[in-house]
Design goal:
heterotrimer; A: 266 residues; alpha/beta; Rossmann fold; 2 domains; 6-stranded mixed sheet; 4-stranded antiparallel sheet; globular; B: 310 residues; mainly alpha; MetI-like fold; 10 helices; 2% strand
């Protein structure tokens, strides 16, 4: 049973009006259990839209999305995935620990269990001493780590991430990437990750899905065979550079006759 | 009502999906339609209270909260409206509608001048404070305190000083009213302008520096445009403040041509002719609405090429 | 207000940032202002009933401290009662308007109109509706003014949420009720205290000005006006100082309240 199965999905915004946009056309994508898949592409290619379709935050115009053989809508109701965004989206009136407990409150966990779980999560993202801090007292990288802890708190089998490191500086970003790989190893979570950074996609993923805009579609899938033990040294690896080149060329191919690579502006 | 709305910067956080053009237009049409409906309901509530309310006022939880429902204190709505078409005093005087309209227009002109003066003075101060750190350091504490001190409370001070002076003014007393309006209006402009002028990002200032642009060029090309979103809400406050200032000083300096003095005068006559007071209040309300509509359209002009967030 | 914006730094290129550089300029301006005022009155032999010297105002305040204090208490109480009632009314109506759309649409034109009418004008109507021997008309006036500010702020807080937070709640399949409880209400509470902070000084202003339109003689506004017209100008100024102190107390109190109650909305003033 695949973690996520996207079949023949299309999404049209503003259907039947003057500003109709074909955001996604005939998307097929299967993500296996425990896999790390990145979606990459220039702005307007619909990678964030695809992620939101999987999350059932928006509905496809046609086609089906299954999560563990369940319709995406049911999966959302059952809380089968966690989600992290580019903006941490922390609640500024809750301290770090209370932020992590939010999804657990909604699931109706009792207080002691919530407390224990949130502390466990804080240890996982190495923010143990910051439980009582308020979000605005943390740096951007730390806020994002809290957001990741929150997305994993309910122990979902799947994690959906929409450019979670997009607003961080390069050094913090690389550090966070390594942290994410460590967390993934410890939890065995399946991850779908939207990014516009080629090295980030290659460093993190088992597979990189390359997309192109107007209309949004998948143009190539690059298998990243770097093994499961990736460290900071992997970034110096020749294999790593080869994969980067491969993704870059796939992007160029996708780009022919369309807009230049830009910043995602969903 | 001088109301300072928290500078409007929080507006960047808007709800997820903004309404589309056509939808927004239709909703605006609906909004305008709501006005007569709301006023009809308020009028009905007013008349309804007159039927059930106590004639001499009443208490809620020991507090004299219920207004007196008699026709002397709360005249019928139709009396207020019909009073507009009847003569002001004797049979030979003008109809009250014309008197009120004239007074409101008089005050409007004075308030408009006050507003313009306030904006100019406020901006000059803001620019000086941006240009010279000393000015900012020296004046800022006073500007902050001035927001807390009942400025309108100082109004009589100014008005009486102005009144002493305005005895020499004769028919030109409105100058005093305009000055007071400007005095109330310039504070929000200075505060909003200062925040706005400083809102230009360090990067864009450095960009201007890299062009070897003079300070004035940077002001005109960069700082003033980036101040616009901060100035817009400040102007709304300043417009209201100008009206309040003018109305208050009309009463204090006794400028008979203005709507403020008319309200005060009709207030004294309210025991004999209660509907009269309300006609003057209508006039003041229309003055306020026209002023805020004018400022709103200026705002629209200032922000015409900006994204629709504010 | 973005969540990730952490530092509230000055953002201006500043020279020396020592205490002296910060304190000295306002002190110089203050000293120049009051010194100049005192000197100008001496030099021009301005008669006291036109413009008294600061030292004379100080003397009047000192000599009549009890009178100024009792007038300040009367006006301050009116402002406080109105502030509390207006806050409750504004928050309740904003919540209702948010819950029942039609009610909100009906209330909207009313708030716009009330906002546009010069407040001082409404006082004369209220004085007429209530008996002039009570403080009720003034308190209702303050309530109206405060109501409007709080209403606008709370309505905004209930409506304007961070898009990411809403998307997150949707990903949790949260019910509208849960979104209300976990996102909209806490967010609106922040706005509520900002509304109170904004309204507090205005409550004092309205309480004071509403006294200019007749009614009982015991408040600051009446004392200021009557002493001016009796040409006891220095005495009138002493009451103005009283009013300023009441205003400052409300300002400080409401800021402290916001600072303590909703720490995430702390803001710098001297920016």
């Amino acid at each position: 049973m695949s973690a996520v199965e996207v079949a023949q999905v299309s999404k049209v915004f503003n259907l039947g009006t003057a500003d109709q946009v074909d955001a996604l056309v005939d998307i097929d994508l299967t993500v296996e259990q425990g896999e790390f898949v990145s979606l990459i592409g220039p702005s307007g290619c619909g990678k964030s839209t695809l992620l939101r379709l999987i999350a059932d935050l928006i509905e496809p115009t046609s086609g089906t999305v299954l999560m563990n053989a369940k319709p995406a809508h049911q999966a959302r109701l059952d809380q089968d995935y966690g989600m992290a965004f580019q903006q941490s989206g922390l609640f500024e009136w809750r301290n770090v620990q209370k932020n992590i407990e939010l999804p657990l409150e909604l699931k109706g966990w009792d207080k002691p269990t919530r407390r224990a779980r949130s502390l466990e999560m804080l240890e996982l993202v190495k923010l143990g001493q910051f439980a009582k801090h308020m979000p605005w007292q943390l740096s951007g990288g730390m806020q994002q780590r809290v957001a990741i802890a929150r997305s994993l708190a309910a122990n979902p089998p799947l994690l959906l991430m929409d450019e979670p490191f997009g607003a961080l500086d390069e050094m913090t970003r690389e550090h966070m990437q390594t942290e994410l790989l460590r967390i993934r190893k410890e939890t065995g979570t399946t991850i779908i990750f939207v990014t516009h950074s080629i090295p980030e996609a290659v460093y993190l993923s088992d597979r990189v899905v390359v997309m192109s805009p107007r209309p949004g579609r998948i143009t190539a899938v690059v298998d990243v065979v770097l093994g499961s033990d990736r460290t900071e040294d992997t970034r110096e690896d020749e294999q790593f550079y080869d994969r980067i080149t491969e993704v870059r060329e796939a992007l160029r191919g996708a780009e022919m006759g369309s807009a230049p690579l830009g910043i995602e502006d969903r | 009502m001088t109301v300072v709305l928290g500078a409007g910067v929080d507006e960047s956080v808007i709800s997820v999906l903004p309404a589309r053009g056509a939808q927004r237009k239709r909703r605006r049409g609906l909004r305008v339609l709501m006005f007569p409906i709301t006023f009809a309901i308020v009028a009905a509530l007013w008349e309804g209270y007159k039927v059930v309310g106590p004639q001499n006022g009443g208490k809620i939880l020991g507090w004299k909260l219920l207004p007196r429902a008699g026709s002397r204190e709360m005249p019928h709505v139709w009396d207020m409206v019909s009073r507009l078409t009847r003569p002001e005093n004797g049979p030979n005087s003008q109809t009250i509608g014309i008197v009120v309209a004239k007074a409101a227009f008089y005050s409007f002109r004075v308030a408009l001048l006050a507003f313009v003066l306030g904006v100019v003075i406020g901006m000059v101060l803001a620019i000086l404070m941006t240009r010279f750190k000393f000015f900012e350091r020296a004046l800022m504490p006073y500007l902050v305190i001035s927001q807390t001190v009942p400025i309108v409370g100082i109004a009589p001070v100014l008005v009486f000083i102005l009144a002493a002076w305005s005895r020499n003014l004769g028919d030109q007393k409105w100058i005093a009213a305009s000055l007071l309006g400007a005095f109330l209006a310039f504070f929000p402009i200075t505060i909003g302008g200062l925040r706005g002028l400083k809102s230009a990002s360090p990067e864009s200032i450095e960009l201007m520096d890299s062009y070897a642009a003079s300070w004035w060029m940077t002001l005109v090309k960069l700082r003033l445009p980036s101040a616009a979103p901060y100035l817009a809400p400040a102007m709304r406050v300043a417009g209201a403040a100008a009206v309040v200032g003018v109305v208050v000083s009309e009463i204090s300096v006794k400028i008979n041509q203005g709507i403020g003095e008319l309200v005060a005068l009709y207030g004294q006559q309210a025991t004999n002719d209660p509907a009269k007071l309300f006609t003057a209040v209508f006039g003041a309300a229309i003055l306020g609405l026209v002023m805020s509509a004018l400022v709103a359209s200026m705002e629209k002009l200032m922000l015409r090429s900006r994204p629709v967030t504010a | 207000m973005s969540v990730s914006r952490r530092r509230v730094g000055s953002g201006t290129r500043s020279g020396g940032d020592g205490v002296v550089a910060k304190v000295l300029p306002p002190v110089i301006v203050g000293a120049l202002f009051f010194g100049g005022w005192e000197a100008f009155v001496d030099w021009q032999h301005v008669r006291e009933f036109i413009l008294p010297k600061p030292s004379e105002i100080w003397k009047q305040l000192f000599d009549n401290f009890g009178l100024v204090r009792s007038a300040s208490v009367v006006t301050g109480t009116n402002a406080l009662v109105g502030l509390i009632l207006g806050t409750i009314l504004g928050a309740l109506l904003a919540a209702t308007a948010n819950r029942y759309r039609a009610f909100g649409e009906l209330l909207n034109p009313l708030t716009i109109t009330i906002a546009a009418i010069p407040a001082v004008v409404i006082v004369s109507v209220l004085n007429n509706m209530y008996s002039v021997t009570t403080q009720t008309g003034r308190r209702v006036m303050v309530t109206l003014a405060v109501f409007f500010i709080v209403f606008v702020q709370v309505a905004r807080g209930l409506r304007q949420n961070h898009p990411t937070q809403l998307e997150l709640m949707r990903s949790y399949a949260a019910s509208p009720r849960e979104i209300l409880r976990k996102v909209r209400i806490p967010n609106a509470v922040g706005y509520l205290f900002t509304g109170i902070r904004t309204a507090a000084p205005i409550a004092v202003i309205i309480a004071l000005v509403s006294e200019y339109f007749g009614g009982t003689q015991d408040g600051l506004g009446q004392r200021i006006a009557s002493n001016f017209s009796l040409s006891k100008t220095a005495f009138a100024f002493a009451y103005v100082v009283g009013g300023s102190i009441v205003g400052l107390l409300f300002f400080a109190g409401s800021n402290l309240l916001e600072y303590v109650a909703v720490p995430w909305r702390r803001r710098r003033y001297s920016r």
